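Quick review question:
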């Protein structure tokens, strides 16, 4: 199992709203992917410009497939354009 946490810091309120909508859409489609156990996008009430995604996968091959899909479908480039700094992904668990 692999659990990842990604932090997204957006440029401004407009970018934050766009990213939130994109992450909501991505969460719905990711839930249908093989090997996905959980995919949740959220932000903190006190930090409107910062968003997080926590995702759980059965194994690394599924993470890699998802990462390639996100890139191929344009989610990655769209997200990068909205960010004030590079996204930060941490591996919380890998076994």
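Suggested answer, residue by residue:
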């Amino acid at each position: 199992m692999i659990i990842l946490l990604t932090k997204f810091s957006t440029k401004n309120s407009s970018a934050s709203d766009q990213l939130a909508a994109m992450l909501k859409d991505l969460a719905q489609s990711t839930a249908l992917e093989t090997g996905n156990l959980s995919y949740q996008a959220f932000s903190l009430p006190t930090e409107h410009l910062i968003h997080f995604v926590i995702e759980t996968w059965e194994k690394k091959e599924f993470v890699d497939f998802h990462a390639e899909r996100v890139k191929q479908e344009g989610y990655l480039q769209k997200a990068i354009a909205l960010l004030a700094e590079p996204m930060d992904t941490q591996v919380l668990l890998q076994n």
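Why it works: The mean pLDDT is 96. Strands lie at 2-9, 36-44, 47-57, 88-94.
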